[in-house]
Amino acid sequence: MPRTDPRADPPADPPALGIIAGGGPLPGRVAAAARAAGRPVFILGLEGFADPAVLAPFPHLINRIGAAGKTLQSLRAHGCRDLVMIGPVRRPSLLDLRPDVEGTRILARIGRAAFAGDDGLLSAVIRVLGEEGFRVIGAHEVLRETLAPPGLLTRAAPDALAKADIDRGVAVLRMLGPADIGQACVVQQGLVLAVEAVEGTDAMLARAGALRRDGAGGVLVKLCKPGQDRRADLPTIGPDTVRNAAAAGLRGVAFEADATILAEREASLAAADAAGLFLLGLEGLSS
Prior knowledge:
Layout: E1 16-21, H1 26-36, E2 41-46, H2 52-55, E3 60-63, H3 68-77, E4 80-86, H4 94-97, H5 101-110, H6 118-131, E5 135-137, H7 139-142, E6 151-152, H8 160-176, E7 184-188, E8 191-195, H9 201-211, E9 219-222, E10 236-237, H10 239-247, E11 252-256, E12 261-262, H11 265-275, E13 278-282
Parallel strand pairs: 1-2, 1-4, 2-3, 4-5, 9-11, 10-12, 11-13
Antiparallel strand pairs: 6-13, 7-8, 7-9
Helix pairs in contact: 9-10, 10-11
């Protein structure tokens, strides 16, 4: 039996996971999952977006987006190498950004992508963080169980008209995706009632509800953009999405399976069943 060398170094502790947190509960869920796996965490909450109550159980700092110098310094001071970017953030105007010296330098390195769509900007941010010595990973790599599976998840199911609306929604998003506009649209009886832009899904649903027609309700379709970097800004649905879809008079939600975060799965499914909505994971989509 081999003897253990008492001089051998003990295994090194894993480096801390840095979480750049926008709004909602998912930053806390990522932190809790990493901590449960024995990994220390540090959350950098984005001021005006991150929920202090979500961050409270974990080591954290709330910092404004433009203060990049303090952000990078804090992440390094806490031993973070891997980073997760999670939670919705509304892009500020350059006037509101008020970048510090480091922020100005980073903006110069991001270049024209600062004026591109969300996916182009996020890809540039991931590149710059890599140049700064960090590795950006997807939230789904920590929360593997949050990816929505394929198939029907609810008691309600789409009929032929709803399936036709889903197909129409997929076609629309496939055309709009290369322009880096949004990840979602609402289709009713073949008519595109709304397309997601900077306002986000919930505001789009409210707008679509005001435009709905008589007769069979429409559907919400959410997909990754073609070629999207899946380490950030995966499509996300949760209980609020379901409730807002029901309030808009929709009959269901269709999403890209294995590429959509289903937040609070049990609550989302319960809300959908209570409202009589279907949740459907779409397979075979080329992104």
